[in-house]
Amino acid sequence: MPMHALHDEHLDHDLATIRIKNLRLRTYIGINEDEIQNRQDVVINVVIRYRAARAVQFNHISEALNYRTITKQLIRHVEEGRFALLERMTREVLDIVMAHEQVLTAQVEIDKPHALRFSDSVSITLSDSREAHD
Question: Dihydroneopterin aldolase/epimerase domain: which residues (predicted)?
């Protein structure tokens, strides 16, 4: 199958994608007494899109979206929090990511391993975006 050339109007050369993959944390999540009393594992995946032209040009962290800072915020929030619903935890994690002005779009998926019998996990995915600023 031949490859079709992409024209410049279809490319966004400075849009970067950051993926935080399989961030494994322990927190209080659920509505059953056992879940309220005991921490459980959750697995967080985050996809972030931002304009990276200045980071590429200047090759300095001050010009980049610092994914380490975001990850530390997520770890602190999730591990110190208590959540009844996976939907609520996912929204709160997404809000932390979107609080960074450089973020144009983000998607968060949180898995709760072994939430259902015979299932590896149950997950919730939420996404958000803002208008691009020049």
Answer: 18-128
Return the C-alpha torsion angle 73, 67, 104, 124, nearest 10: -60
Ordered by where they begin, the domains of the chain are 11-129 (3.30.1130.10)
Distance CA 78, CA 28 (A): 9
pTM over 0.70: yes
* Measured distance CA(99)–CA(113) in Å, rounded: 28
Residue at 106: amino acid letter: A
Locate tokens 């993926």: which residue? 19
- What digits encode the pLDDT tens for the residues 32-63? 999 999 999 999 999 999 999 888 888 888 88
Name the residue with tokens 């709760």: 112
